[in-house]
Amino acid sequence: MLAALPGALRSRVLRRIALEAGASADELSSTHLFELDRLVTDWHGQRRIELPGRVSVTRARTSGGTSLTFAATPVGG
Q1: How far is the C-alpha of 33 from the C-alpha of 8, rounded, in Å?
Q2: Which H helix or E strand runs over 50?
Q3: What is the mean pLDDT of residues 33-45?
Q4: Which residues contact 3 (CB under 8 A, 6 or more apart)?
Q5: What is the pTM of this model?
Q6: Per the count of CB atoms within 10 A, which of 9, 52, 61, 74 is most buried?
Q7: pLDDT band at 76, cuts 50/70/90?
Q8: In angstroms, what CA-CA distances link 72 with 8, 46, 57?
């Protein structure tokens, strides 16, 4: 569903989701959003994206397709 959105709209949606998950608004950069977008549009097995505010994002295959999971960054990386 996200992949079908125009890039600018997809970026805004990803930013909002990241902020709601606890990412730091002051430190969330375009580089972070670019990497989040790659999880959606250009996934090649990337492990996780770490966002400011100790939030990590992973992509997983599900029975319904794929999903992004936002969670606390594990201690020690």
Answers
A1: 11
A2: strand 49-51
A3: 92
A4: 10, 40, 41
A5: 0.86
A6: 52
A7: low
A8: 26, 17, 9
